[in-house]
Structure formats: C-alpha cells, structure tokens
Amino acid sequence: MLRDNKWVYNRTSKEETETLSRKAGISPLLARVCLARGFKEADEVINFLNPDIKYLCDPYLMKDMDWAVERITKALDKKDRVVIYGDYDVDGVTATSILYRFFRLIGINSEYYIPERLENGYGISIQAIDEIYGKGVDLVVTVDCGISAAACVEYAKGIGIDFVVTDHHECSDSIPAGVPCVNPCRHDCNYPHRDLSGAGVAFKLVQALCIRLGLGDKYLDYLPLAAVGTIADLVPLHGENRIIAHEGLKRMAISGNPGINALIEVCNIAPETLTAYHIGYMFGPRINASGRLGSAEKAVRLFITDDFSEALDIAKQLDSENQQRRRIETQILEEAAAQVEKENLDKNRVLVVSGEGWHQGVIGIVASRLTEIYYRPSFVISSAGNVARGSGRSIRGIDLYYLLSKCSGLLTQYGGHELAAGLSMNTFDIKGFSKMINEYAMDIDEEVFSPRIHIDGVVQADEIDIDAVRELEKLSPFGVGNNPPLFVMENVSVRSARAVGDGKHLKLDLSADGRNFSAIGFNFSDILESLTMCETVRVAFRPEINTWNGMDSVQLNIKDMKPERLKHEKHTFYYTLEKCIPADISAKKDAEIKMKEVEEKEIPGIIFERVNTGKHCFIFVNSLASLKRLQETLNKSEQNIKKDYEIWYTGIGNGYAKKTCIIVNPIIGELDEELIDSAVFYGEWLDLQYRDALIHRLEGKNIYICPVKCANTEYSSLTPDRTDMAAVYKYINYLIERGIRKDLFSMSDDIKCCFGVDMNYFKLKKCLDVFEELSLLTRKPVGWFEMAFALRTNNGKKASLESSMVLRRLQRLKQRQD
User: Fold this and answer.
1) Opening angle at CA 449, ends 590 and 767, nearest 5
2) Which CATH class for the 596-714 domain?
3) Which of 43, 429, 642, 780 has its CA at a distance of 20 to 30 angstroms from the CA of residue 470?
C-alpha cells in the first residue's frame, strides 16, 4: 500500500456551493461534490443524477454505422452465413453475446468465433480467417477487435469474405479499407462519446438495426449485457457509458438472462443490492477466467443459453476456474515482485519483468498489481523459446500505446490504449525493449510518477450522517471517471485501533469535533504502531452505510491517512521539516520578488487589519524557535489576538475556522494560493531559496517579510558529518543482527544517547538517504515512521561520502545558513 500519496483538493466556494444546492435541489455536500467534478449548472447536475435512456445518442452519428447496418440487413435478406468474431475478455464476451442473441431474434444465421488467448493471441489472424472460410461464411462482424487488422481484412476480402468491423480501441493511421469500420475512436468520427466499450459499440449497432428494422425499443433488452461489458472493461462511467451502466443495472436482476441470474446466485448476491462493484469485482473475474486459462467459448454460452440449469452449471465452472486463476496469479506476482526487488527495477520509470512460461492468461492482472504497488507503468512478459508476449498497465498521464509506438521497431505486434496494452516480440529483445521504453519515458514530467488522490472536499464531522451518505448514492454507479466521493476530515483523534482480517486490515474508532465514527482501513495494518505516536491525523475516506443486526450506521472506509500532529512537538517539526525541504529547488532568477519588510511589532497590526476586513492572514514559519517567539508576540499583543489563531504543519488546514493561520514548514505543493490574501514570512529560514520559491508561488498577494533572529538550536547541525554517519551505520548493524525494528524517532534518541552525537529525525533520515544512494543498505518503509533495513556488500567497493549528491545538497544548505 502506497503511503506517499499527494492529496489534490478540488476547492469550491461557499457561494458556488449554496447556489448550486438551491437551484438543483440537493444538499450542499452533494453540490460540493458535483462542483468538484466539473458540473457548474443545475441542469447538468440534474441530468447526471438522473441518467435516462432518452439521452442516448442517435447511433447513426457514428462513422460508417449506416454502411454497417446496410451490410447486415443485406445478410438478413440474402440469408448469408455470419460469424461474430469476438474477444476473450468480459467486454468481448458480452459484445459477442449481444449480437448473437439479437441476430438470433431477427433470423440471421450466425455463429461466433472467439480466439484462444494462448493459441491465437488477441485479435484477427490469418489462421482464424482460413478456418472461418472453410465453413462457407459470407460475412464476419467483429466486436471489440479488428480496427488494427487491416492486412487480415484485406486477405479475407481476397478470398470472398465480407467484413463489418466494430471496435473501440485506439486507431493507427491504417484501418481496414473497403469495409465499414464502426469505432468512435476513429480520427474522422465525430461521435460525441469516444469512450464506449466494445459491448457499448455492439449495443449501439443493435440500436441502429432496431431503428432500420422498425423494432422500436427492443434494443433496450440488451442493456444488462452492455452494462456488464461497460463496467468490467473499466471505461469512464460518464456520458452514454453512465446511462448504459445505470439503466443496465436497473434491468439486470429482472432481465431474464439466465447467465446473469446464474452469476448472481454463484456470487451469493441479493439481486436488489446489485451494484457496479459486484460487476467489476465479482462477475468480471469469473467471466474472464475461462478466457484466461483456456477458451472463452463457455463464457459466451453462459449468456446466450435460455436454460437456467445449463447457465448455473457453466457459472459454477467459471467460479472454479477463477479460483485456479487466482492461485496462478499469486505465484507469478511473487516471482515478478522478487525480480523487481532483486534488480532494483523500481528505480526505473517503466517496470519490465519477464519469465519463462508465465501463464499468458494472467500476466495482465499481474501487471495491474505491479502498477498498483509501485505506481509505475508495468509490463509483464512471458517467453516461450524465441517468442515473448506481454501485457502492460499504466498510470494516469502516461499513454502506453504512444510509448509502444515509439518502440515499434522492437515489436512484432502491439495494440491497446492509454492505460492497457499488449505486445509481442522476440525474447532476445526484452532487455532492449526495457531500455528503450525507459529512455522515452524520461521525457515525461516527473510529477506524473507521484501517486495522487483526488479529494472532493474537506468536511466537518457534523456533515457526515446517514441521510447525507444515502443522498451521495445518487452519484452511482461508480467506476472509472466517476469514483465514489472521497472526503478529508482533519484534527481526527484515534480512540482505538486493532488489526482484523488475518492481521491485514485496521478497525478503528475515530473522534472529531465531539462525534465518534467507526472506520475500516483495508491493508492498513502496517501503520498500527505509528498511530500510537500521533495526537491527531488527517483521514481521507469514503463514507458508507454499514448494516449490522438490522441497524444502519455510518462507516468511514479509509483510503489514506496522514499524521497531522505527533505527541511531541519536536517530532512533528522534524518530521515535517524533512518533507518540506526539497532535494533541489530555486526561485525564478529573472523575477523580482515584491515584498515589504516589517518589524516584529507590526505583525499584530497587520493581522488585526486583515481580520477586520474579513480577510485571512497566513504566517509562514520554518523554525521551532521562531514559532515559540511568534506565539509569545501574538499572545502579548494589544489587539487581543491571543488564542485567536490556528497552527498547521506543511499546509493550510482545509477546514480552518480562524482568520489567522500559522503554517510551520510549508510545502509548496500543499498551498492553494487562491485561499491566501496576505502572507507573512517570519523568522529565520533554513533555505532562503526555498522561501523565495514560496513567495513566487504567492505572486500578486500581500507579502511581508519579518526576518527576526532567533536562537535556532534545532538548526545547529542538520547536516550529518562522518561521526554522525558512523554512529548511524553501527546502530543499524546492531538492529539488523538482533532483528529489532524501531521508529526513526526512537532510533535518533538511542543514537544520541549511545554515541553522544547530535541526532534527530531529519538528520537520521538524511543519513539513510546517503547510505541508500551509495548502495550501502536497502530500506523499506513500514508504517509512517519505521524502517526495515538490509545491508548491501556494494561488490567490495569502498563507498565515498564525497560522491553523495544528498550530502552535497545538505552542505550547500549549511553554507547558505552560515
């Protein structure tokens, strides 16, 4: 579980929120979420909260749709033999099932062909076309594939097979010629919704055929299958996808489709509680299982049969295959992760791991897990002799398809889209591919590789109750592009915490503003010890309704937590200081800093003036001594400012109530300049360049500088010397030999006591940075404040402290301080 997420706040004004709340007839909390997601007008909000089939677009707006319909109706009239050529994942299976059931309804003589992942790979192949030709087929209609198969389609035309291509994957410059290609991602297609799934495109084809054949709204019968494909394929749930998912879920339990009913039973779901979560995390893996381990043909049979007994039998087989898939996936994931750790691949921008004989049916899932763990695009490649096939998954902001196109010279085949892609190559090119794709990835902004959590808003404890949580359900169905609302609550105390679920998860009792909350944190047990050191924490959570013994209550589903205040002020200071002093930063050389230097006695007057005009005043501090002196100054002031201020560390408290805020160790990325009208930079700063960079961030604001000299004892020796590092290294050896693990605060105290050196959290962390840079040790964070260590031999080479960039930067800071 990542513990270094950057929280990105979507901020809305109180006026905007109240206006939208009133016009749309919703609560201010829901209005705030809608504003955070880009909805400004009441009509937009009302339409989004009430998705309706009447808002489905005319399918004939899609390029070549009329041509495709014409060819299919011709097949109906001529009684052509038709093959539906699908794909082996959920999207392909449901798309195939939609067309098969509809063609059966209107009397088209059709069958389906699903390539086998291990034998045929993804998409259309010459081998498959020859097999289809042998059956006397006149027309092939593709679903969820075909847009990149120009050569294969041309071959098929040459032997007398017509094609209709329907797909939703990204298009290259060359698409099949001389046949209808229905794909909203075509460069020359102006369809308003480009993000349809393969099942969504098949559904739109059925809608168009119903219009042509005068079948009214018969196409709506296929919404449940389209919803399964749409949700499971992880396309953004907005626009038509939202309508398909919402309306499909409504009809799913009463659809009469035996396959869907069988999955509901096997997954032990109450039909009336069916949500997108069940589709994505329960239906999806089972439907995919057959295609991953063998043939997806039985998954299609699940959805096209009208016999519930047969469907139930198939669903049970899929459930069993899914359990087998999970066992195989776990083994490969362990091997892949071990490869990453052994070869230090997590230092690369793109992870590329490979193994002989890894099961190709699960490498895509393993790639997803690696991306989740390391927050890097990941490729997992399975080799068999000279042939290697791989699957990749990405993070937001990095387009895998684009990166693969840059490496196409090393690939025999590739395809996909921004976040997921597949490839094949010669086995001996794997290392060259890894090197090349990482070279191209160096052009990507480093910010992209910092994991981010998008916050819908900061809430007070009294805003979260059962009625509010139930109203937020109007935003469902949730999925890609429409996640469940995520809020932050600050100044939260942990009343109790215990590990549950085989020791992996945390069950917590929290308290904020006099209200108590029950909370669950999945895979958060590693911070259990760290919580005991915190006075308060910030919690990012999704509110849920928990039902127990017939009683409903609010439960906070924890998605991230950050320490806010530790139980010792110095610990809080040094912990946040280490985060706020960047590795290397400089202010704009060509920009003039506009600021006014003031005396200390003027500060209360500045605050008083700003507060009286309804403005906020922020005071930035970078020293404990400065903080103490500032508090004394404010408490003694004639303007009666005593206790009428708040103190925050690293960033502005988003739930701040008072007009004056003191920010200790401010972090540039956690400041929202829109909230700041006036800022005072008080006392001494460790790095004036960093201070100036902060000032430039607040360009155009009222900036005051008060350079008061304080007894900065905490700055006396933040740069470690050889004696410090020798002490730290000996102490780590001691811990490793005895299998002891401690938090860095206790470690710094022990080192100070045992070796007689000046040590604190900041200096200790920098010593560890130097050791890791010089390959003297490896470390892994455990919780927030603990580390697990392992020494490295460094191949017998003697490490030179002078070569450490970390140490050089610290020495430059010390020189500027002196």
Assistant:
1) 80
2) alpha beta
3) 43
